[in-house]
Amino acid sequence: MGYIEKIQSMLQNGEISCVELTEKYLKAIEEANGELNAYVTVTPEVALEQAKQVDEKIKRGEKLLPLEGVPMTLKDNISTNGIETTCCSKILKGYKPIYDAKVWAILKKNNAILLGKTNMDEFAMGSSCETSCFGGATNPFNTDHVAGGSSGGVASAVGGDIAVFGLGSDTGGSIRQPASFCGIVGLKPTYGAVSRYGLVAYASSLDQIGPITKTVEDASLVYDVISEYDENDSTCEGRQGEPTYDTLNNDIKGMKIGIAREYLEGVREDVKEAVLEAARKYEEMGAEIVYFDLPALKFALPVYYILACAEASSNLGRYDGIRYGYKTEHYEGIHDMICKTRSEGFGEEVKRRILLGTYVLSAGYYDAYYKKAQNLRGTIIKAFDDAFKNVDVILAPTVPMTAFKSGEATSDPVETYLTDICTVPINIAGLPSVSVPCGFNKNGMPIGMQIIGDKFKEGKILNVAYKYEQACPENFKDTKWGVKL
Amino acid sequence: MKYELVAGFETHIELATDTKIFCSCSTAFGGAPNSHCCPVCIGLPGTLPKLNKKVVEYGIKAGLATHGKIANISKMDRKNYCYPDLSKAYQISQLYAPLTIGGYVELSSGKKIRLHHIHIEEDAGKLIHSHGDTYVDYNRGGVPLIEIVSEPDIRYIDEAREYVEKLQQVMRYIGISDCRMQEGSMRCDVNISVRPEGSEKLGTRTEIKNMNSISNIMKAMEYEYERQVDLIENGGKVVQETLRYDDATNTTSSMRSKEDAHDYRYFRDPDLVTICVTDEEVEEIKSTLPELPTEKYKRYVSEYGVPEKDAQLLTKYRNISEYFDKAITDLKKPKTASNFIIGQMFRILQTEEDKEAFDVKTTPEQLNELCKLIEGGKVQNNLAKSTLDKMLESGKPCTEYISEEDMAGLDDSFVDDLCRQAIEANPKAVEQYKQGKEKAIMACMGYVMKNSKGKANAQDVLEKIKSMIS
Ligand SMILES: [Zn+2]
């Protein structure tokens, strides 16, 4: 049983009231957040008000809705009406949206308890959470290490048990990588399965919201709720087919699990070994492991950085100090104001990507970079399409390594970009992928593997992930932090 | 040396949809600043555009009305530039795959001004300067526009005027815009170059931005033509630049040169899906289009014998031509109705706005009734005219003013009799007429008119007498 079901049954049985539960989490946040730095905004008033409503509902003898009464958190790039949404950037400090993101509207309707907003790399640009203007979130397994990024705050909070689940966003691995670093589960849904309405855009054609949880069941439950069709997001189709929860325990005997050889290149030995060990477990369960080649993978990283930066340079043009957010104090004229506001408001990594993106879209370079990258995107999509003609899911490492120490990521940007090598192809192809813990290195830091599916096959990858979780519960470990139920 | 003018137009037209292109805010003109706004059209972080289907439909109508090809697949692109009135720092427009391709606008000379394409896009907000400060009003931000881009086919300033007027006329006919230049719902940019007459090579062009009246367009083009010719004749070179026209001084001045031209970094907008339009959908929209003014004009002239100048007046606004079409359904001589509209009715509809609205008390059916009396020879023209004046004032039918008695006895056989009598009574005049003195026949006419108490139709009588004599 996952944590969500456990909490809901405790609430329903009267073992604990929702207000008590919420207070427990709020207290745990107070104790742990100084070191984990997972939350950037805590919302006790919102949480306790919601909790009261849940308790009244229980008193009236009503049945709880999915996720109702469950304390959770949202990444700070998901718009929350009246609650600061900063993307952990100085340029949006103090900005309170006047509308709700679709996913928050759904969760609110279901009375999931919002504990607060969590830390992230500035505008989701980064792999360590350290580009946050609030400083990075740390890893609950060892706070000398980063939580990963960009959804580092959610992963740190869920891994540290100061939230039951959280929603992050994944543009090039930002859900899966921190989930992998923090030893928990992160689902990046198919592009278009979850509404992006209200998610502050980084790279619109790659961004996707998804759950970060401690167990596969929880990821499935959250995904089933948030994957609603939304007419306000033209690219959103919602979940296709039955709830993923219904098929979690399906037999995987005879299923073909593919391993692309390219995915094991340049991966650290301990990570590779853990993934291959997982493959052996699947064989024991009756699945067939199929090795194949995916040469198009070598284009993924440059394609990702060209497309993501190009879109970002356009998406981030609106932060000019005129309508909301940070505005420079001293300026002469509008041009000066916009220049100073942006120079002072954006951090280094964001500026680097805006410049890069502006460059690849400019006249004379568009064909050589942006257009070429778009064409190669087509090549990568096709390569995965072909692969899924022969296999049901693909098994791969989530990150080529385990969580690095704080400060290590920021020294060399290109080196850091390489850590995204396993995750970005999935965003480029718009596929679903779930990262699941599959072991620990000799220092006790978690290792993650991802199970990648064809479009809208969330049900299948969660099924495969669940079977592994059942077989290897030892890889799903608690840390010393937070609420123990 | 003589120089030829070469000009092309980029015309922005605001579409008359109820709501904006990417949100459900009102497009109504005016309103308190920022009162027609929502998170989407002020570009708050995280918001996404949702394409208004009506905008696509209106764009297709514009394309069909200008004989363009409707693209089955078109896409939205982002045009990136930073200006405070543009809330997202990019305008959602179309560059790589516009909604309609090609087409033309036909001038009265028969010359066709070819169109390159028509695309849909969003308008920007407005800056308001007041008390030394600058404010932004986003009410207009997100109002749908079409941009009609012509080929450089215009050679004379008069052609430019007619081109703009024709566009206005057609867009109003199909009901997609009111095209009011003074309110900014139609704005023109003109590209101008000159070249020695007979030369095939295009000269360097300048672009005059954002003109908001036809007379300004004509004056600006005239000025710019002269300026370029002077420059070349004095050994200078035209520089590619964007100009602003100042109507107070009647001059153009530079806004920016080619060197500091914007690099808009166009790319496909990832927030919007491909616009797919099937041939069936195009056909369906086509079937809702009214007959277009050029077709109407041709029909009036060739089928009804309406003089060209009158046909132009009748087709200038859709309401007039529709009134005319209704009034003449079963008339043998539609020209009678046309004369009444242009004579009697235009006299009381003095402004262009009045003519466009064409709000008259007399219904087309009532006009038809009156015309039929004339055709039946029951009422003579002068009487009909004065009757129509009364009808227009009261809204009552003609039978209110023309009595049975007025119409009695004027059937054809009675007039025939009178004509015969007239010939018998004026043998001398008949003789003279036969010898070629046309005017002599007026004596017989006078006889008939007098004995019919002025009720006979003069034209009919003349023809009758002539045929009886010969
Ligand atoms: Zn709006």
From TrEMBL, chain A:
The protein's matches in PANTHER family, at most eight in alphabetical order, are given as:
GLUTAMYL-TRNA(GLN) AMIDOTRANSFERASE SUBUNIT A, TRANSAMIDASE
EC top class, as a word: ligase
- The name of this protein is Glutamyl-tRNA(Gln) amidotransferase subunit A
Q: Which reaction does it catalyse?
A: L-glutamyl-tRNA(Gln) + L-glutamine + ATP + H2O = L-glutaminyl-tRNA(Gln) + L-glutamate + ADP + phosphate + H(+)
Say which family it is in: Belongs to the amidase family. GatA subfamily.
The UniProt entry's GO biological process terms, in alphabetical order, are:
translation
Name one cellular component (GO) term: glutamyl-tRNA(Gln) amidotransferase complex
Entry-linked Gene3D superfamilies: Amidase signature (AS) domain
InterPro entries, alphabetized: Amidase, Amidase_CS, Amidase_dom, AS_sf, GatA
Q: Which organism is it from?
A: Ruminococcus bovis
State the active site.
K75, S150, S174
The free-text function statement in the UniProt record for this protein reads:
Allows the formation of correctly charged Gln-tRNA(Gln) through the transamidation of misacylated Glu-tRNA(Gln) in organisms which lack glutaminyl-tRNA synthetase. The reaction takes place in the presence of glutamine and ATP through an activated gamma-phospho-Glu-tRNA(Gln).
Domain Amidase span(s) in chain numbering: 20-462
Alphabetically ordered keywords of this record: ATP-binding, Ligase, Nucleotide-binding, Protein biosynthesis, Transferase
Give the enzyme's EC designation: 6.3.5.7
One Pfam family hit: Amidase
Note the subunit structure: Heterotrimer of A, B and C subunits.
GO terms for MF: ATP binding; glutaminyl-tRNA synthase (glutamine-hydrolyzing) activity; transferase activity
UniProtKB/TrEMBL annotation, chain B:
What function does the entry list? Answer: Allows the formation of correctly charged Asn-tRNA(Asn) or Gln-tRNA(Gln) through the transamidation of misacylated Asp-tRNA(Asn) or Glu-tRNA(Gln) in organisms which lack either or both of asparaginyl-tRNA or glutaminyl-tRNA synthetases. The reaction takes place in the presence of glutamine and ATP through an activated phospho-Asp-tRNA(Asn) or phospho-Glu-tRNA(Gln).
Please report which protein family the annotation says this sequence is part of: Belongs to the GatB/GatE family. GatB subfamily.
One Pfam annotation, family name? GatB_Yqey
- Give a GO molecular function annotation for the protein: ATP binding
Q: Which reaction does it catalyse?
A: L-aspartyl-tRNA(Asn) + L-glutamine + ATP + H2O = L-asparaginyl-tRNA(Asn) + L-glutamate + ADP + phosphate + 2 H(+); L-glutamyl-tRNA(Gln) + L-glutamine + ATP + H2O = L-glutaminyl-tRNA(Gln) + L-glutamate + ADP + phosphate + H(+)
Domain Asn/Gln amidotransferase, first and last residues per copy: 322-469
Gene Ontology biological process terms from the UniProt entry:
glutaminyl-tRNAGln biosynthesis via transamidation; translation
This protein's gene is called: gatB
Q: Which UniProt keywords apply?
A: ATP-binding, Ligase, Nucleotide-binding, Protein biosynthesis, Transferase
- The organism of origin for this protein: Ruminococcus bovis
Protein name listed in UniProt:
Aspartyl/glutamyl-tRNA(Asn/Gln) amidotransferase subunit B
The record's SUPFAM superfamilies line, in alphabetical order, gives: GatB/YqeY motif, Glutamine synthetase/guanido kinase
Principal EC category? ligase
The UniProt entry, under HAMAP family, shows: GatB
Supply the EC number(s).
Answer: 6.3.5.-
* SUBUNIT field: Heterotrimer of A, B and C subunits.
